[in-house]
Write a structure and sequence with these properties.
With 439 residues, the protein is α/β, with parallel strands linked by helices. The protein folds into 2 domains: 137 residues, Aspartate Aminotransferase, domain 1, CATH 3.90.1150.10; 258 residues, Type I PLP-dependent aspartate aminotransferase-like (Major domain) (Aspartate Aminotransferase, domain 2), CATH 3.40.640. The protein has 15 helices and 17 strands. The strands form 4 sheets. Strands 4-12-11-10-7-5-6 form a 7-stranded mixed β-sheet, with helices on both faces. Helix 4 runs antiparallel to helix 12. The longest helix is centred in the last third of the chain and has 20 residues. It is globular, with a radius of gyration of 22 Å. The N and C termini lie far apart (46 Å). The mean pLDDT is 96. Bound molecules: pyridoxal-5'-phosphate (PLP).
Length: 439
């Protein structure tokens, strides 16, 4: 890493404060704090402009898979640069997007036969929603327009994906702009059956994050929930959309979370880990049945009129192919059980702390919920999980708060000893912020 002079660093910090509006960030607070500017990385460490190293405990917002600066992905992108950086998929094809389609569809649930590329988790979900809607229009069931969602769902920040979201803090303000949905509470399958009994002829699809709701604070679904949703969707002729944007690519211990319950969705959304955390790319996978409903002569207007400028970007697809190659070469999934066990073992210690209300884990996805020792929530203005994350930064790890939950999602490629260091930092950060509040 080429070290910057103090003057350069000061300039960067000033421009960052003056010019950049950061996502999901209260800028008044941000402006008053010292910005943390990342300059480079080594495996599972990020390094800031001052040379300080941090364990990337959240995989750079759940995208990084094998660690940073993976030589196989670096080389794949460089090699692709020698061919072409971008060409459109609207009516044309490019080499890496074809090769990736073959690899991804071979890995995905067997019923999924077609891939539609886009560039973020939100767009992958938008596309699934529009496909489901248009599918029923073509099938002559035009009244099937409603979507079933889960309470506390998060599917992204574009208007369609916000419509199927259920997080009060992020979504409520926008209600007047959103289309109507029916929300299912508490993963209650009997309620879902009831809704289907009353309205299934109006329902296009049921949208879920399978097994675990990430942004809701790592909320785990009861065993059997995903397969029960699949059964009901089959029984009542409703499409099932699984949003694997967060859970895909090994995060839950399996390549895709639906594998835990042997479920095959009708539409599946992928993004985040798809390129190993290198470049923006997303995919919506569909069944032959859905795809074929869009086939026809041009004047029938069955075409799916949707596409983005960077759809199927060759550089991103080359990175994604290399990402999958590392899964094979490094036996990433085979090595996971030991890491998941280490995580579990160390989390047991953290769970014993008086201000830890609950620890939730599925594979490498973890949420540590904080509360007063008597179980009451901390006052909102204390932003307790944020305080713990700030302390963790001081101690050399990047974590993220979601309400009163500290989220941990280390790269799958993290070495066991780095994972132990990360958990120790979390443990110490909780002690440092909360020990005086426990009594
Ligand atoms: C389950 C799920 N779906 C969709 C998204 C949106 O993805 P993106 O931020 O790439 O638009 C996220 C992001 O966290 C997510 O967790």
């Amino acid at each position: 890493m080429k070290r910057k002079s103090n003057q350069e660093i000061k300039q960067l910090k000033d421009w960052d404060r003056e010019l950049i509006w950061h996502p999901f960030t209260q800028m008044r607070e941000y402006q008053n704090a010292e910005p943390l500017i990342i300059q480079s990385a080594e495996d599972c460490y990020l390094i800031d402009v001052d040379g300080k190293r941090y364990i990337d405990g959240i995989s750079s917002l759940w995208v990084n898979v094998h660690g940073h600066r993976q030589s196989i992905i670096d080389k794949a992108i460089r090699d692709q640069l020698d061919e072409v950086a971008h060409s459109t998929l609207l009516g044309f094809a490019n080499v890496p997007s074809i090769l990736l389609a073959k690899k991804l569809l071979d890995l995905a649930p067997q019923n999924l036969k077609k891939i539609f590329y886009s560039d973020s988790g939100s767009t992958a979900v938008e596309i699934a929603l529009k496909m489901a809607f248009q599918y029923w229009q073509h099938k002559g069931q035009k009244q099937k327009q409603l979507f079933i969602t889960l309470e506390n769902a998060y599917h992204g920040d574009t208007i369609g994906s916000v419509s199927v979201g259920g997080m009060e803090l992020f979504h409520e303000l926008f209600r007047p702009l959103l289309f109507k949905t029916l929300a299912l509470s508490d993963f209650n399958i009997e309620n879902l059956r009831q809704i289907f009994l009353e309205k299934s002829n109006q329902i296009a699809a049921c949208v879920i994050e399978p097994m675990i709701q990430g942004a809701a604070g790592m909320r785990l679904q009861p065993p059997g929930f995903v397969s029960a949703v699949r059964k009901l969707c089959d029984e009542f002729n409703v499409l099932m959309i699984c949003d694997e944007v967060a859970t895909g690519f090994g995060r839950t211990g399996k390549m895709f979370a639906v594998e835990h319950e042997g479920v095959q969705p009708d539409l599946m959304c992928l993004a985040k880990g798809i390129t190993g955390g290198y470049l923006p790319l997303a995919a919506t996978l569909a069944t032959e049945e859905i795809y074929s409903a869009f086939e026809g002569s041009y004047p029938e207007f069955k075409t799916f009129f949707h596409g983005h400028s960077y759809t199927g970007n060759p550089l991103a697809c080359a990175a994604a192919l290399a990402n999958l190659e590392i899964f094979v070469q490094e036996k990433t999934l085979e090595k996971l059980p030991k890491k998941i066990e280490t995580l579990h073992y160390m989390l047991e210690k953290i769970a014993e702390q008086p201000c830890v209300k609950e620890v939730r884990q599925l594979g490498m996805m973890v949420g540590v919920e904080l509360a007063k020792a008597n179980g009451e929530a901390f006052p909102l203005e204390e932003r307790i999980a944020n305080q713990v994350c700030q302390e963790a930064i001081q101690q050399g790890a990047l974590l993220r708060p979601l309400g009163d939950v500290v989220v941990l999602m280390p790269p799958l490629g993290i070495e066991n000893y780095v994972l132990e260091d990360l958990l120790e930092i979390l443990n110490q950060s909780i002690i440092s912020v909360l020990s005086h509040k426990a009594s």
